[in-house]
Amino acid sequence: MAIPDSHTRHLFFTGKGGVGKTSLSCATGLALAETGKQVLIVSTDPASNLDEVLGVTLGQTPTPIPGAPGLFALNIDPEAAAHDYRERMVAPYRGLLPAAAILSMEEQFSGACTMEIAAFDEFSKLLGDPAATTQFEHVIFDTAPTGHTLRLLTLPSAWSEFIDSSTGGASCLGPLAGLEKQQALYAATVAQLADPARTTVVLVSRPETAALREAERTRAELADLGVSHLHLALNGVLAVAETDDTIAGAMMRRGAEALAAMPAGLAALPTTVTPLLPLGTLGLDALRQMANPALIQAPGDEPDSDCILPGKLSGLVEELAQAGRGVILTMGKGGVGKTTLAAAIAVALARRGHPVRLSTTDPAAHVAEAIGESVANLTVSRIDPAAEVAAYRAEVLAKAAANLDPNGRAMLEEDLRSPCTEEIAVFRAFARAVDGGQDAFVVLDTAPTGHTILLLDAAEAYHREVSRTQGDMPEAVRQLLPRLRDPAFTRVLVVALPEATPVHEAERLQADLRRAGIEPFGWVINQSLLASGTRHPLLRQRGVSEAPFIRQVADQLSQRCALVPWLSEPPVGSDGLDQLMQ
Amino acid sequence: MKKLEIFDPAMCCSTGVCGVEVDPVLVQCNADLLWLAEQGVTVNRYNLSQQPQAFAANPAVLKELEAGMERLPLTLIDGQIVATGAYLSRDQLIEKLDLIPSAPPASANPFRVQTNSGCCKPGSGCC
């Protein structure tokens, strides 16, 4: 089997964005359904593409998949779930409380926290309440990206610890008010996850160092939560006979090196290997191939693509350099290479003699590592959530605790351990980094899509608040949204890979940005096999299939775009990064 | 011993630590209430977004709400409204509750707070 062969009732797929969680969970679900089982696939990912993979429009109740008897799927839409949750909290008081009071309650239940809690609530109903899925023999969760998933899973235990240890009573537990009643359900959910007889968690990874490192982090964090029935699914492994093709050789070598250096904790897990497919993974036929590589037909001798390729990244950098300063944001889903591109652009601008500050909010990023050696005019920093939180706590205590008695101070310290504090601390760091764009270039690789949108959303909310109160707000925060919206100050580069799902996801990201009043400057299509010059049959077939997506980006989606080839040498160090410009 | 009740505006939490800036008024207020509870005063605190039933069940509070959201926060002692639109200082609470002062007095100025300007701003990424 090229897919996890597990017989537990629940299966979870988790991993870094873009590793193929949705495809693998669908392939696994389809294979189980084809042995006569009743199977439900559930997505809790706000950026889910379950619809695309299965080729059917899904809703919040199980929908049968045409052509696959026994297979059902549903999408948990966090926004709709948040709306329902808000209604549950507010509706009983309509008519009892004045309209203005109802309005202010509704506002309070409109934030990101509510959305997260609501999504978890829906998820728990499926997992913690057996009656909800009684007709299915297997329930497969195509979970959200790793960090998000873990937060969903750990919040209840973190919060119940927080309640227990809180000394002051009335404390910063926020929307927990509506959550406390469900403690039993959440406890049942976590118990289900930790029960090896009932649940398997599949860590999905590509044969790449960063993805494997992320999988290892997840493994360790799950182990801390008592979840130990794990499986490793290596997806997209290129394994062909001897080849004299530079690209194919490099891809195999890099994959093999990454796997050889795999952390010991991962190497000890039961593992399946899914080969790199010549075509994408949309539709039932592709999913069947994923599970049974024997079905894959050898690539034919297809003609070369006559696709006109977009220009190089160096052309885009030339345009960016003209402003002489400002903020450059690389945005896109996890795994598309935002960090590498941000680093390459920063190095290229610095080499032109511009002062450049490169900063990352991606916790999985190793930007300093990517630069390798120091480059003149370039400074690199990381928005490290742990460090930001510590600094923020110290600042708050210094400012607010001066007049407090020991008990008051103890309570404040306790409150600063709440889950919100990190969000605030990171947000402030982001605003500060953007502020630096007044007199230099600031290049930021933002965290995955959902988080990015939250930051922008937060900026908007703060902006409104600030406009009204003109209170004691840092100037950097006050200026944030106007700066992000100013095309002369901020240039957003949308990053995508030349495949169906990444392009569609980037298209959604662009729509979100436009709703927030931000027009992307351009797009970068990364890791193109078509542009790589490979002659290997399988990779060539994948390359040819990129053409429609490249043209869609160039002709319809972007004002300007650049194409970056798949590189045979990994883009590490400043010389490695220079390759991206060529 | 007297009973003290605070009816807060809708906010994520009542401690003041989770905004872009910490709200020192809320931090101080929280510490004052904790101190009062230690002196034996019964302290109950209600947040409009989390305990709306307490607002709906109290006719005097409802009447204030109908007059406008800026009437919040409300301070009640033994069911009587003693302050609207601002938190009382520790000294003022001591006086209204007929306690003997024993702690160093905090600032005497009641600060105005705006409805919704408390702890977590809507959409702040916090709640």
Automatic annotation (TrEMBL), chain A:
Enzymatic class: translocase
SUPFAM superfamilies: P-loop containing nucleoside triphosphate hydrolases
Database matches in InterPro entries: AAA+_ATPase, Ars_ATPase, ArsA/GET3_ATPase-like, ATPase_ArsA/GET3, P-loop_NTPase
SMART domains: AAA
Sorted UniProt keywords: Arsenical resistance, ATP-binding, Nucleotide-binding, Translocase
Gene3D superfamilies the record matches: P-loop containing nucleotide triphosphate hydrolases
All residue ranges annotated as the AAA+ ATPase domain in the record: 7-226, 324-517
Record-listed E.C. numbers: 7.3.2.7
Catalytic activity: arsenite(in) + ATP + H2O = arsenite(out) + ADP + phosphate + H(+)
Domain of life: Bacteria
Entry's family note: Belongs to the arsA ATPase family.
Function comment: Anion-transporting ATPase.
Protein name in the entry: Arsenical pump-driving ATPase
Organism: Allochromatium tepidum
UniProtKB/TrEMBL annotation, chain B:
InterPro entries found in the cross-reference section: Arsenical-R_ArsD (IPR010712)
Protein name per its UniProtKB record: Arsenical resistance operon trans-acting repressor ArsD
Taxonomic lineage: Bacteria, Pseudomonadati, Pseudomonadota, Gammaproteobacteria, Chromatiales
